[in-house]
Amino acid sequence: MTYALPYALKKIVLALPVLIGVSVIAFLLGVVALGDPAREALSADGVSTPTQEEIDVKRIELGLDQSLGKQYQQWIGGILQGDLGTSFMTNIPIAEEFRDRLPKTLALSISALLLVIFLSIPLAVLMAVYQHSWFDHIGRLFSLLLISTPGFLAAILLMMFFSVHLRWLPTSGYGTFSHLIIPSLVLAFGTSGVIMRVNRATLLEVLHKNYILNAHAKGLTKAFVLYRHALRNSLLPVITIIGNYFGSILGGSAIVETIFAIPGVGRYAIEGIMSMDYPVIQAYVLFTGVVYVLFNLLIDLSYILIDPRIRLGGDQG
């Protein structure tokens, strides 16, 4: 573990300026890019044609009369204390909404992640082991189908088949596990296809390495060599894809949540965008950015456990 600590510290230090940059972008998006927040706040209060005096009063109330630097300092100070602001439309603290909605987004994201793992990796292993067989050909065709099918089309087809034709699953809503099945499948579609192809390719490459051939020559069983040596060393790029995927769907499942009426964080963000509720938009952009950066950091740190070259100093990049 000689080089593990310096490697981990390097990755953590590199993540800090990225997190600061994400917070600056989220702040500027709400204050600069979305028009005048004071007018939007007054509109949410029912004042459709505010006077300049009313706008000036609201700007002072929101702290918009101060410099951008001072506004950012106050905003990020509140964030660090758990204060994400208050929604213009509902007048409910955004942190409370996130606490209520995040478990639903987590349930959807974890369900989709489990589908990706248990669908794509076993199929990729079988495709590599039985290379050029009928199973491999069908598997590669299936993976291309998953990758090329747009999410909205997958949602329509799955709803038509499982909800309308078979009447097995509900079309929308949230409340039971059955409500998560179709949305999870939609989220898992494209990434499952990518992982199937990537894992098949890396596993085939590993299976032709000298240490694998030596293991076979020592009389070790094919299954032992596959799962003890080959599979583990072929999973590094797959883990990267899975980690990035989970970070992206945890913060970016807004469209699926809206289509299937799941009251998660993503649907909350869409509602905020439609109503120009800039504190909600700021909080969501910050949330998605931080989640993505942190998951990438966790992926990098997981390499310490998975890749012995990092622990021994062979790869400190």
Describe this structure in words.
The chain is mostly helical and 317 residues long. The protein has a domain of 183 residues: MetI-like fold. It has 15 helices and no strands. The protein is flat. The two termini are 16 Å apart. The model has no long low-confidence stretch (mean pLDDT 84).
Radius of gyration: 24 Å
Number of helices: 15
Taken in chain order, the helices and strands follow as HHHHHHHHHHHHHHH
- Tell me the total number of β-strands: 0
By CATH, the topology of one domain is MetI-like fold
Strand content: under 5%
Fourth-tier CATH superfamily name of one domain:
MetI-like
Measured as a percent range, the helix fraction is: over 70%
Mean pLDDT score: 84
Summarize the entry for a quick read.
It is a multi-pass membrane protein. The protein has 317 residues and is an all-alpha fold.
Topology:
Layout: H1 4-33, H2 37-44, H3 52-62, H4 68-80, H5 94-129, H6 134-148, H7 151-165, H8 178-207, H9 210-217, H10 222-234, H11 236-252, H12 254-259, H13 265-274, H14 278-306, H15 308-311
